[in-house]
Amino acid sequence: MNATEILxxxxxxxxxxxxxxxxxxxxxxxxLSENEIKAEMQEMYDRxxxxxxxxxxxxxxxxxxxxxxxxxxxxxxxxxxxxxxxxNEHAHFFCEQCHSVVCLEEVKIPEYNLPSGYKCTESDxxxxxxxxxxxx
Amino acid sequence: MNATEILxxxxxxxxxxxxxxxxxxxxxxxxLSENEIKAEMQEMYDRxxxxxxxxxxxxxxxxxxxxxxxxxxxxxxxxxxxxxxxxNEHAHFFCEQCHSVVCLEEVKIPEYNLPSGYKCTESDxxxxxxxxxxxx
DNA sequence: ATACAAATGAAACAATGTTGCAAATATAAA
DNA sequence: TTTATATTTGCAACATTGTTTCATTTGTAT
Lengths: 136, 136
Ligand SMILES: [Mn+2]
Ligand SMILES: [Mn+2]
Ligand SMILES: [Zn+2]
Ligand SMILES: [Zn+2]
Known about the structure:
The structure is a homodimer.
Chain A: H1 3-9, H2 16-28, H3 34-41, H4 47-59, E1 63-69, E2 72-77, E3 90-95, E4 101-108, E5 119-130, H5 132-135
Parallel strand pairs in A: 3-5
Antiparallel strand pairs in A: 1-2, 3-4
The complex binds manganese (II) ion (MN) (2 copies) and zinc ion (2 copies).
The site of one zinc ion has 7 residues of chain A, from helix 5.
The structure holds a DNA duplex.
């Protein structure tokens, strides 16, 4: 499924900026940062439009935002093409050496035993270390 | 144990700014943001010194930094007074209504089953939802 | 082709965090 | 108590990340 089809399926407008973001994520096949996507977009990149587009793509359920720490954010394509909002919740791995991020689809987010009175709506797991390539 | 004793124990210099940060965290008995600590410090707060001090206190093992998302950071006092670096790893809860953070000391960080080749050095769990007070 | 809602891009702003450097201060030794 | 020195402070200046307003442009359905 290409960018045009993805946008149509999720009922948001097809624009060059959105297509470029989706293509970057699909081609690299891993989550990318703003700067990494910017490098792919070249002269057509505009910062304000970029932020609005990642917000729109996130809301539409096409991509997900991965916050590694207060200064590192990556965006990953959603592979749950089944329906709309069915974001399959998984952990993320961050390599401290090469700064790549991997969606660990097989590491699911569990239910936690919270103290009484606390209710969970969402949770995030960030695992930091050294990735496969960097360990070779 | 008061701020002066904590600083001496961890062998870093006793300064008014560091004492104020420690006192704020101890008095509130929960993790606080820069602005929340700033409010406690009043006129003696200086932004640059604050950042350098939280870095020094973190390195010394006196406090820990809790990154909720790319725009929300809190600092919590370490209760593992036993030795120096023995940060007992636990999950953190963030209330989306009142924005308070709670150290869930009883929710330990587990070992995850990573794909072969990946090595973990550290991991973070952020659980978001509604806290006890906000659920009443 | 037209109409209209949605998206874009410029300017201006806000929040968060860092670096270089001279002055001030905490602490240990004399 | 005074002195010496490494550490810390606070200012200025800067970098990065993200948001808001508003006029213009563009995508899409009719
Ligand atoms: Mn992912
Ligand atoms: Mn904690
Ligand atoms: Zn790596
Ligand atoms: Zn709450």
